[in-house]
């Protein structure tokens, strides 16, 4: 049973994830929350009085809680949240505690944090547990968790219980940092598909085809995939796709750029040949800097590549 939980990083993903925990953990359990943006913490405390309590630093969280979840943007933030000598989680005595990082970061930073913890607090456990499914999935409680552990891990039951309160599918990926490797591999694939779908749709439409006919052809043919079906980059092919709402809801193009760059670093390190990688990174990098695309759903690459939106 988890009585004392800590949560760090109350952004677009962290806030709805914490809300699920506050709603679903048993009444006797308490949650301490921390974010560098004070108002985000105050907001959660006001929403869940007698359940969510304000902490003053990551160290304070680790002092109070037995289980800590972190959800911050990038590797540098994970490093400072865990390793800052005065304010970090590891400046507290975290012996016996369970630490779960859900941020999407590079595998090397994650392994460095894990090694630091193993060396200094042999009874503490650290896991990478990145998520997929976006902000809407986090709100609905349908995100997937990719756990950096084996099926036989002694903490799998507790990890699965907690992840199950925030999401649906929970996949132990094999070992430390494998959750992140799986997540980056997934986002590389889905990012490439979005570009390929944008190009193929544009080519077909310029040949005179109706975009809805093209989408039906892919769905019936060998090109069938979720991006073309439910996240089609061309507006009004699928009414609930971000593209149909002006690319406003969804997975920000800058986040796809970040994940893509992380995936390519990983490819380089492990020696896989990703011939589409450089083109993909250049596309997401360009779209991230383009003011017609910045801050919009990553499928806005269709606009970036010059697709017709009428
Ligand atoms: P976000 O920028 O909305 O939220 C991050 C939060 O972390 C912010 O509130 C920020 O103030 C806080 N933070 C930063 N540094 C901190 C520190 N040192 N101490 C405490 N708090 C700190 O980002 P997000 O969209 O919630 O994404 C978080 C992570 O989840 C990222 O790694 C992202 O790639 C990943 N992710 C995002 C989505 C998505 O659709 N947004 C989907 C899956 C995974």
TrEMBL record:
Family annotation (InterPro entries): 6-PGluconate_DH-like_C_sf (IPR008927), 6PGD_dom2 (IPR013328), 6PGDH_NADP-bd (IPR006115), HIBADH-like_NADP-bd (IPR029154), HIBADH-related (IPR015815), NAD(P)-bd_dom_sf (IPR036291)
UniProt record similarity statement: Belongs to the HIBADH-related family. 3-hydroxyisobutyrate dehydrogenase subfamily.
Name recorded for this polypeptide: 3-hydroxyisobutyrate dehydrogenase
EC numbers: 1.1.1.31
Highest taxon of the lineage: Eukaryota
GO molecular function, one term: 3-hydroxyisobutyrate dehydrogenase activity
Gene Ontology BP terms: L-valine catabolic process
3-hydroxyisobutyrate dehydrogenase-like NAD-binding domain sequence ranges: 179-304
Domain 6-phosphogluconate dehydrogenase NADP-binding residue range list: 5-171
Active site: 183
Catalyzed reaction equations: 3-hydroxy-2-methylpropanoate + NAD(+) = 2-methyl-3-oxopropanoate + NADH + H(+)
Signal peptide location: none
Pathway info: Amino-acid degradation; L-valine degradation
Keyword terms: Branched-chain amino acid catabolism, NAD, Oxidoreductase
Record's GO cellular component terms: mitochondrion
């Amino acid at each position: 049973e988890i009585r004392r939980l800590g949560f760090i990083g109350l952004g677009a993903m962290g806030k709805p994830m914490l809300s699920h925990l506050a709603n679903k953990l048993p009444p006797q359990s308490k949650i301490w929350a921390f974010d560098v943006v004070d108002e985000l913490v105050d907001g959660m405390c006001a929403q869940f009085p007698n359940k969510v309590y304000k902490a003053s630093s990551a160290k304070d969280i680790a002092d109070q809680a037995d289980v800590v979840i972190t959800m911050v943007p990038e590797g540098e933030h994970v490093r400072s949240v865990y390793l800052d000598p005065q304010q970090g989680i590891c400046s507290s005595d975290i012996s016996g505690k369970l630490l779960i990082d859900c941020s999407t970061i590079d595998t090397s930073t994650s392994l460095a944090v894990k090694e630091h913890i193993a060396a200094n607090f042999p009874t503490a456990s650290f896991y990478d547990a990145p998520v997929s499914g976006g902000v809407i999935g986090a709100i609905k409680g349908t995100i997937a968790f990719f756990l950096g552990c084996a099926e036989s891990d002694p903490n799998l039951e507790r990890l699965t219980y907690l992840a199950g309160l925030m999401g649906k599918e929970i996949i132990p990926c094999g070992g430390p940092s494998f959750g992140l490797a799986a997540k980056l591999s997934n986002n590389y694939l889905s990012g490439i598909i979005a570009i390929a779908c944008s190009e193929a749709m544009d080519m077909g439409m310029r040949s005179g085809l109706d975009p809805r006919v093209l989408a039906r052809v892919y769905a019936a043919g060998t090109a069938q995939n979720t991006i073309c079906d439910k996240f089609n980059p061309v507006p009004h092919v699928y009414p609930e796709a971000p593209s149909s709402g002006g690319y406003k809801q969804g997975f920000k193009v800058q986040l796809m750029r970040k994940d893509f760059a992380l995936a390519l670093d990983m490819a380089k390190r492990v020696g896989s040949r990703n011939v589409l990688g450089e083109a993909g990174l250049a596309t997401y990098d360009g779209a991230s800097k383009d003011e017609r695309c910045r801050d919009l759903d990553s499928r806005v690459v269709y606009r970036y590549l010059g697709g017709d939106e009428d």
